[in-house]
Amino acid sequence: MTSSKPPYLVVSDGCGNVFEIPELRMAGMTLSGPVVPEEETLLPLPFGSDLFELPKRIPVGYHPKRREFVEVREYRGQQVYAVAGFMAPAYVQCYRSAYVSLPNAPRLALYSYTALGWRKGEFVAAGMRIDPDTRQDLRHVDLKQIQQRGQQMLKRYPNNRLVRHLVENCVCRYGCPAARNFVMERWECPVPTSPACNADCVGCISEQPDASGVTPPQDRICFVPTPEEIAEFTVPHLNAAPRAVISFGQGCEGEPLLVGDTLEAAIRLIRQRTDKGVINLNTNASRPEMVERLFAAGLDSMRVSLNSAQPSVYTAYYQPRNYTFDDVLESLRIARKFNRWTSLNYFVFPGLTDHPAEMAALEQILNDAQVNMIQARNMNIDPEWYIDLMGFARLSPEQTGIPAWVRHFRERFPALKFGYFNPPREDMGGI
């Protein structure tokens, strides 16, 4: 984007209509307050993104003539509300939507809320593309064809409970991009396995206590598939799909290491039948001894989820049961011992992620575990809830900005890859 004119503020009228206010400029929010987003943080709202009206939240914009940020409670006599963008996969947030919540504002659902503006006939978001891979771009989605292929999968595997779960629940009910790619026999195939978890993550997307005030966007799988059910459809996927990956550990389940015996048997069974593709594990890495067994069985890569590289912040969010942050680090060391690919599923939250203390802690992990990749994912949570719960308001205002954060780690760790998706073997550089 080459234009230097700042985008206009975007608001909603509360009835589903979104419009710009040309007298005011778009603002973004940091931990310490509103800012005018730098040009390098702006891009056209990606195709496939969503717009959210934020109930009982007053928009904040920048008044160029008065050179100050203003709350906008109404426009031309009409009450207005804040708006945010929920960016499509492969994009990371640079600033969140700028607003002031009313005292009775409901807690926001578990999505990310990116600052949004309007310029030259299009929406503009405060974000950046972090991965060129197009595997979840909505342009690849033909809903009619996906429904047809899903029904074909059910006929191909009539007695497989996991295939039925992926088609009827993940494809048809939730529109899961990974499950859609499974029925299209391409790229990464999800393999959920675990109904239980050993963490009580504040922003868990598959289980929430009633007291949280939010509804998880999906339900957990309610059974543990057998190794044969897993191998039955994943082996053909690994053999035939382009850039093939299968991944244990999905949003519709708990922690896969809790059914590690099943995973170990499934991995051995798969590798008896094919040596193609990548078998990946998305995990909280809470059980190092099980991680070692899975790598010994033939696991190719592991992605470990972190909201923070600082033990205290990690523990406050994950609320781990019967494991510690040190267990997570030990699992990463075990992966290095086996010379397997490791990624951090690193939840980006502007103001924390790019804070010097957090960056120093992340550097320490990268040095110690020699992680191959950072998969930058937006933190999906009501930002004010997260800030209050974690005590982030106490952080010093020294954030570097998300683009500068990426540049810093690329310069400091030249071999480190940045992305969003689990890479296929072709992108692993010989590991």
TrEMBL record:
GO terms for molecular function: 4 iron, 4 sulfur cluster binding; catalytic activity; metal ion binding. Its cofactor is [4Fe-4S] cluster. This is Radical SAM domain protein. The lineage of its organism: Bacteria, Candidatus Moduliflexota, Candidatus Moduliflexia, Candidatus Moduliflexales, Candidatus Moduliflexaceae. It comes from Candidatus Moduliflexus flocculans. It comes from the Bacteria. Residues 183-412 form the Radical SAM core domain. Keywords: 4Fe-4S, Iron, Iron-sulfur, Metal-binding, S-adenosyl-L-methionine. It holds the Pfam family Radical_SAM.
